[in-house]
Design goal:
The chain is 68% helix and 3% strand. By secondary structure, it is mainly α. Helix 15 runs antiparallel to helix 18. The longest helix has 35 residues. It is globular and about 60 Å long.
Length: 474
Amino acid sequence: MGYTRTQLWTLLGLQAVISFSFQSIFPFVNQMLLEIGVVNDPKDVGYWSGLVESTYAVSQLIAVFPATRIADTYGRKPVIVWSAAIVGISMISFGTSTSYAQMIVSRILGGVEGGSHTCIRVMVSEMSSKSEESHILTLLGVAFRMGKVLGQPIGGALAHPERRFPELFVSAFWRKYPYALPCFVGATYALVCAFVGQLVLKETLQPKRKVDAPTPSPDADETTLLLPNESSGSSTPVKNTDSSPSISSVLTWPLASLLGSVVGMVLINYFISATYPLFAFTPIEFGGLGLSEAQIGLHMATRSLLIIITMLPFSKFSDRFGRLNVYRFSVFTWIPSIFLFPLLNRIARAGGEGGILWYAVLSVLFILWSVTGWAWISVFLISSNLSPSPEAVATIQGMVSVALFTPQAVAPALGTSAFALSIKYSDILGGNLFWVGMFAFGALVFLHSLTLSDISYDWRGEETNEARVEDPAI
């Protein structure tokens, strides 16, 4: 179909909407819960902030398949544009929340954009050639991280504007809603992107093509799927026929083992990612770092920037050492990373916060943490090659998506609650029970990754029709 640079830049901007808009709340959400009276003790805030974060993930997971069905019926563009607009509305609601219920409802509302990321990727496939697609998908990943780089420090820096900029924000409104400004900035960005998307984006959904198929069996699935169009390289909605394999027919042992590894990888990733703002916010004497909202936002933005930098050499390392070995190495880096979190607290307790040693350990932590991002890219490469046929690609990727999304719905609440329990019962392992558990779980996930096999099927027809085992199971 082809695309213009304007359309590509608009898609990149829309891809960054969710990370820019919603990541901006993380530097201040814990303090917000204290100030609106949800909790009174900083040691208990983790239980409640985890639920705020998990609620969005649950809503996103639920919205994926309905949004995809709507996109197949009415087009990709309406889903993408309206999702961005709804995110903007939800941000306004979150910034003016005065109760825990309103915070939760705002997050649920924002989570309905869950299907837009899939629609953006489908639109990219339909408007680009095969050689262009991988490059554009890489740009989408960079755009998502850039949204974090910009959104997180804004969330920290613009919280309580009546204190930071008393000459400009003198109205009683800002005293009543001290977290409205960063949310309004995120909402404005989302709404502007939705408006530009409505003007610029061109619909890529093609008319449905009919498929002549044998008489279906009584239990035939009549749902509509996105399958590759072999003649154009694009995705068009087609009626599911016998050529679409069932989950049971493609769920081989190597795939099942990979899916299990993905669940473990995502769990530990979101355990730590959701807990870090709480860890950074918690006073030093309770096991945290005692940082301000602005400092937390800067830390999170720095880490996102490092992830962008470490993404650049990924393809070279993957070509040289193999995607499975890169995946294993990426998972392994969680083990030393986890050790550094309590070490930072120990240094701070000794009065070394902000010193050379403290920043050196923090820098090493952020670098190792960034390398763990390679696992996400590796998973898509490994799972793609596990497809025995072009018809099975969508089925397998759908299973991978479930393995990715489901842990995101439970990990934030579990992680922050476990950390809160750890510091509440500080007599157990010196308050480091959470980190000991994460260390053991990280080691388990890594050891399991050693059992994976990188079985490559030539479903594109470029070599042979037989599977090739590039790394046999141990």
